[in-house]
Design a protein that fits this description.
275 residues, alpha/beta, Rossmann fold, 2 domains, 3-stranded antiparallel β-sheet, elongated, binds adenosine-5-diphosphoribose
């Protein structure tokens, strides 16, 4: 159950009829069994003896060793496909069903769980891309393509195969394909990652819910500052205290400490009761 003061503040923010925006990070998928990035078992912690983990998520490494980078993404894609959305993802879907076009989801996650839970593509900004899409590595067109059918599951040590090489090609020019993922040495943009759209949505937001993110990247921080400057209410959901929770509390908002799978259903219920 949520504290009465949280319910009252959330319902007052919903009744302003401004936008309700949810920003999610890896923490919302932790209860589905997908490692986060900076947690104990995080992707940026475990890596391998061959590379520092964060190096894999760069265009520079992809240029130097494309098949090594592909192997790492095919392994992560397999981990994500073996996972199922949890009650936190379902609660985000319920918020969208309640609010319709007043709702927006900005997710840093590339694991596809929001879509599989039922969040609509139209109201979701995948600001870091998706493991279920590819692009032309040479950029022959700006198109983003569905992931090719037939690519086998990869465990951590599965080699890159001739089948992978034959399937992971650009459907237009048949040249090599790349993951549709924003890498650390690349920039947000509107065309691939709906950057300007995310900032516009933030400017229209009266209630911002930040979920399971450590605040390590700049777009969520940008969204947070825009909402706070416009006088919006911020509610952070995280198992640990973090910069978003602290910022929320400094501006009359709330830091709800606990697993998103337990807290978000109660938040969705409070929102539905205010509409
Ligand atoms: N419920 C809520 N929050 C949780 C849960 C949970 N069950 N489990 C973990 N968390 C929180 C952690 O406390 C942490 O604050 O989720 C957050 C995960 O932080 P990161 O691992 O840094 O992931 P994220 O914030 O999504 O990283 C942002 O950085 O590396 C890039 O592109 C990558 O999208 C990623 C971005």
């Amino acid at each position: 159950m949520l504290p009465d003061e949280v319910i009252a503040a959330v319902q007052a923010a919903v009744r302003t009829r401004r936008r309700v925006t949810v920003v999610t990070g890896a923490g919302i998928s932790a209860e589905s069994g997908i490692p986060t990035f900076r947690g104990e078992e995080g992707y940026w912690r475990i890596g391998s003896q061959h590379y520092r983990p964060e190096q894999m998520a760069t265009h520079a490494t992809f240029r130097r060793a494309p098949e090594e980078v592909w192997r790492w993404y095919l392994y992560r894609r397999t981990v994500c496909h073996r996972a199922a959305p949890n009650a936190g993802h379902a609660a985000v879907v319920a918020m969208e069903a309640t609010l319709g076009d007043r709702f927006a989801l900005i997710t840093q996650n590339v694991d596809g769980l929001h879509g599989r839970a039922g969040s609509s593509l139209a109201r979701t900004c995948h600001v870091h891309g998706s493991l279920d899409q590819i692009r032309c590595a040479r950029g022959c067109t700006p198109e983003v393509h569905p992931f090719p059918a037939g690519v086998a599951d990869h465990d951590r040590d599965t080699p890159f195969t001739d089948d992978d090489r034959a399937l992971l090609v650009c459907p237009r020019c048949q040249g090599p394909a790349r993951p549709h993922i924003l890498w650390f040495d690349e920039s947000y943009d509107e065309r691939f990652y709906r950057f300007e759209t995310s900032l516009r949505l933030a400017a229209e937001t009266g209630l911002l819910v930040t979920v399971g993110t450590s605040g390590a990247t700049n777009l969520p921080n940008h969204v947070l500052q825009i909402v706070l400057r416009a006088g919006g209410l911020v509610v952070d959901v995280n198992v640990d205290e973090n910069p978003f929770g602290r910022a929320a509390q400094r501006h009359g908002g709330f830091a709800l400490v606990g697993p998103s799978g337990s807290i978000l259903p109660a938040l969705a219920e409070a929102i539905a009761a205010a509409v």
